[in-house]
Design a protein that fits this description.
homodimer; 335 residues; alpha/beta; 6-stranded mixed sheet; 5-stranded parallel sheet; DNA-binding
Chain lengths: 335, 335
DNA sequence: CTGTTAGCGCCTTCAT
DNA sequence: ATGAAGGCGCTAACAG
């Protein structure tokens, strides 16, 4: 790393000062077009690359943002990162990825370490096990943060999400319109507003249609897959619902297994509609209806707002959009 | 960012020199256990976080690696990143993500910019449109690089891949054993060893079973989805194969559409086996057989080797493993 | 428009 | 075992 070309090299070569070189490289208005061209040409010729560490140390700008998510191998989040990366690229920003694996302690460790000045801003989708929000409240005071998809109610920051309430409401209505009389709900993310909103949507849809609401029809998500399977089996055999709303993709699979085992045909005997973001939806079993979130757009939107904050551009709180989710009906497709 | 706690703050507070603090923080042997403890305690109390830019500028260590991949919203790559991130986390390394979107120029821009010293090492999965490898040859001379999954033949670097030849060979044999007499091949990644290996596996399997090999049975991947659809339709109607090997997941979907349109039943009329890494395989149409690569393990393995290089630990070339892919048979499953 | 100067926060000789 | 001093490469003030 010794023979590296630096501003000094360029300055010496062109017989000008390093300050001039630096300003030319940064396209400063104080430098003549002629000098800029000379510097830029030589820089390209010598393959000069600005040392980001030195630049950052001096200017406190890292050109880097962090994305903290529960899990990258998840269609929603990988699509969201795709959107984030696209926006970051346009601004020549770099993107750091951190997975919490739904672990709140890991989340805290990440946010703490990001206070070192490694990044200019942070995009976060909250871990489902997070119950104490103090570290977030401290965080948003110290560094620009935008929450996306998985947010918490009580925090003063930009949040970009789907309209979870409406999505669940619509999904439930969809089942009712298709003749369901007894609709169960598979409940997850209970400590996040995401989860609460979806539950409310389901409950209100039932209420508005004068449908029975029964706690027995609600199954809570458990970490162990096996338990979910057992609970769903229990639900289906004892309550005999004719419709199910699954609030996360992870619930869909055990549903299938139980139906197969009980020789129930989907959607004839039991109609299921699940929140899901599989990007190859057409490969899905045609019997599954899905509520698909606009993951890519959420990523773009969240990154866009983060950059607006970084640019210190003022915006009204009500400019922050609440995106709608698309309800995809697939029951009629026949493969 | 002014009131930030630095080594200076710690030094002043403890009435010792900056140098001593720095050494204590780096666990230098020259510092007494007593002093170390005092420094560490205060650092924790004051939530001191080392400034990575300053540290990097001085020490040339970034504790950061870059991952360059074609597309993040792809099950294989998101699982691979998962594996990479896990290994990086253990070493307290940060992970930067770059998507090429299969564009060779973007790839070159990334590799060039990473020469600035932003990262200690790079993990790359090559873009399918890359035909000139000069930038890679230059790159590997200047910075530690490990290639994974999508590699190029002629380059002197560690490469971690599935055994693409064997995977395709086994998949083809699988169809032959299930009675196929005329097997077509959907060919992609033709400029990467990945693509070549898979094709060879298919061809050799046919050869070893004295099956006809016909160029008419091979369809080349096109960027426009519509063309693939047309080409597959053309293949199926004119050649009437009874088996198809799809070398990438993107080919599976148009296959389905064509079959549906022609009222062909899978796998009764046509057996299809596709390379695919959908992580919710059970949700797939039960008629599809898949070759699934151990994406997570490849990510771990690749990252592991990169760190071995960074540690300057010597290893034999033949320590580099060639991982086998798993062949998942799903035709018999009935939902 | 260009140059001089002074650090950003940290690590690393070299002294003590 | 501890401290003093210099500098990594760059940018921000301030002069000219």
């Amino acid at each position: 790393m010794k023979g590296n070309v630096t501003v000094k090299t360029l300055a010496k070569e062109l017989n000008i000062s390093i300050a001039t070189v630096s300003k030319a490289l940064n396209d400063s208005y104080e430098i003549s077009a002629d000098t800029k061209r000379k510097v830029l040409d030589l820089a390209k010729k010598l393959k000069y690359e600005r040392n980001p560490a030195a630049s950052n140390l001096r200017s406190h700008k890292t050109k880097t943002i962090a994305v903290i998510i529960p899990e990258i191998a998840n269609n929603f989040f990988s699509l969201a990162i795709n959107g984030i990366e696209e926006i970051a690229r346009k601004r020549d920003y770099h993107v750091l990825i951190y997975q919490t694996h739904e672990n709140s302690e890991t989340e805290i460790a990440f946010t703490d370490s990001l206070l070192s000045g490694r990044v200019d801003g942070i995009l976060i989708s909250v871990s489902s096990s997070t119950e104490n929000y103090e570290h977030f409240k401290e965080l948003v005071k110290k560094i620009p943060v935008v929450f996306f998809d998985r947010t918490i109610e009580d925090i003063d920051a930009v949040k970009i999400t789907t309209d979870d309430y409406e999505s669940a409401y619509n999904a439930t209505c969809h089942l009712i319109e298709n003749g369901c009389k007894k609709i169960a709900y598979l409940f997850a993310l209970n400590n996040l507003s995401t989860g609460q909103q979806r539950l409310s949507g389901y409950q209100d849809a039932l209420k508005h249609h004068q449908m029975p609401m029964d706690h027995e029809l609600i199954v809570n998500y458990e970490k162990e897959e096996e338990k979910n399977y057992q609970n769903i089996r229990q639900l289906i055999t004892s309550q005999k619902p004719d419709g199910i709303i699954s609030s996360i993709e992870e619930f869909a699979l055990p549903c299938y297994y139980v139906c197969r085992e009980l020789h129930l045909s989907i959607p004839k005997d039991l109609k299921i509609i699940s929140f899901s973001n599989l990007n190859t939806a057409a490969l899905l079993s045609p019997s599954l209806s899905t509520v698909t979130q606009p993951a890519f757009e959420i990523g773009r939107e969240a990154a866009g707002f983060l950059f607006r904050i970084l640019d210190k551009k003022h915006f009204d709180p009500d400019e922050i959009p609440t995106l709608k989710s698309a309800l995809i009906k697939r029951e009629s497709s026949s493969l």
